[in-house]
C-alpha cells in the first residue's frame, strides 16, 4: 500500500558522519530533539567527496552537525542538485563515550 501523498517518503536511514569533528556539538546537543527536522545542503565544491551533503539544524542560525555518509550520499546529492525538496529528521541520539551518535531519515517532501 502506498503512503498517503501528504506523508514524506523515506529515502535513506543513516548516521550523520563527522560529528566528532564538529566544534561546539557537545554544548549544542541538549537542543537536539528526536523528531526535529534538519536541513540538507549540497557541498558540491568539496575536495574530499564529490557527493558531499551537509546536515544542519533549521535554526535561525543553523548549526552544522556533519555529513551524510560517503558512499551512501550520491543519490541524495543528485536529487538535491535536481531541485527535489529533501529534508531530514532526527530519529535517535545517544552518546557513546565521546561520540554523539545521531541517526536520521532523509525524506522526500511530497
UniProtKB/TrEMBL annotation:
HIRAN domain segment(s): 9-106
Molecular function as annotated in GO: hydrolase activity, acting on acid anhydrides, in phosphorus-containing anhydrides; nucleic acid binding; zinc ion binding
Keyword terms of this UniProt record: Hydrolase, Metal-binding
Organism classification, top ranks? Bacteria, Pseudomonadati, Bacteroidota, Cytophagia, Cytophagales
The protein depicted here goes by the name HIRAN domain-containing protein
**Which Pfam families does the record associate with it?**
HIRAN
Amino acid at each position: 500500500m502506498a503512503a498517503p501523498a501528504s506523508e514524506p517518503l523515506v529515502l535513506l536511514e543513516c548516521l550523520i558522519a563527522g560529528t566528532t569533528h564538529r566544534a561546539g556539538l557537545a554544548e549544542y546537543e541538549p537542543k537536539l530533539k528526536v523528531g526535529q527536522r534538519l536541513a540538507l545542503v549540497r557541498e558540491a565544491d568539496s575536495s574530499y567527496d564529490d557527493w558531499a551533503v551537509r546536515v544542519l539544524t533549521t535554526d535561525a542560525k543553523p548549526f552544522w552537525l556533519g555529513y551524510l555518509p560517503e558512499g551512501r550520499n550520491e543519490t541524495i546529492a543528485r536529487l538535491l542538485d535536481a531541485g527535489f525538496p529533501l529534508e531530514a529528521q532526527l530519529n535517535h541520539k545517544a552518546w557513546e563515550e565521546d561520540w554523539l551518535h545521531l541517526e536520521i531519515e532523509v525524506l522526500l517532501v511530497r
